[in-house]
């Protein structure tokens, strides 16, 4: 799968396929690769890019509100997820977080209770080229929690996160990390309270991103809404 771009437009296609747009038709060569410039029959140029993490976020099929890249960056940065790590995840949703973690080389087992969402996540993981790294299981993590152990990182985006956090010390290796995402303050407080009972280095953060307006007059923070996305709790076994 490659990404064809023209200005702000982006299209996902397989090499060898045809792209039809109001700018003309592009016959994509079977050997098309990143950096190539392809012309439509009307002479408009499209550039070929290789899919990367942000592209996956923009083009995955959605099943709800996925975790934003800035939250994912914090999860990866704060827990140090790296190649060879074993990650247990719950609340797969679209599969964006699982795919990002798979792209850095982690071996991810992720649980999604909704069968339809789980199937979409599998398709997204395949689109992201990380199907070998990410296993999507249909079901509730709390049903299997007694059979799981030895994970380097535990990531949660579920309403029942406190129930899993209470068993985090059984799921994680010594020194392993916990990361829990929630859009609500009340849920975040509950996770913190439970984590403090058995884990260390517990802390909660709000993720906010503020864009800058840059024009000929100068540069200043945007007057638009501040980009709040949610709350993250981190802890260590």
Key structural traits:
single chain; 237 residues; alpha/beta; Vcp-like ATPase, Chain A, domain 2; Rossmann fold; 2 domains; 7-stranded mixed β-sheet; S-adenosyl-L-methionine; SAM-dependent_MTases_sf; tRNA (Adenine(57)-N(1)/adenine(58)-N(1))-methyltransferase TrmI
Uncertain spans, ≥5 residues at pLDDT below 50?
none
- Provide the β-strand percentage band: 35-45%
- The CATH class label of the largest domain is Alpha Beta
Ends apart, CA distance between termini = 39 Å
Radius of gyration: 20 Å
Any guess at the CATH architecture of the largest domain? 3-Layer(aba) Sandwich
Helix/strand order, N-terminal first: EEEEEEHHEHEHEHEHHEHEEEE
The helicity comes to 25-40%
Major sheet strand order: 9-8-7-10-11-15-12
Overall average residue pLDDT: 92
Name the shape in a single word: globular
Q: What structural class do you assign from the helix and strand content?
A: alpha/beta
Question: How many alpha or pi helices?
Answer: 8
CATH superfamily of the largest domain: Vaccinia Virus protein VP39
Number of domains: 2
Q: Tell me about the largest β-sheet.
A: 7 strands, mixed
Total beta-strand segments: 15
- Under CATH, the topology of the largest domain can be stated as Rossmann fold
EC number: 2.1.1.219
InterPro entries: SAM-dependent_MTases_sf (IPR029063), TRM61_C (IPR049470), tRNA_MeTrfase_Gcd14 (IPR014816)
Protein name: tRNA (Adenine(57)-N(1)/adenine(58)-N(1))-methyltransferase TrmI
Keywords: Methyltransferase, S-adenosyl-L-methionine, Transferase, tRNA processing
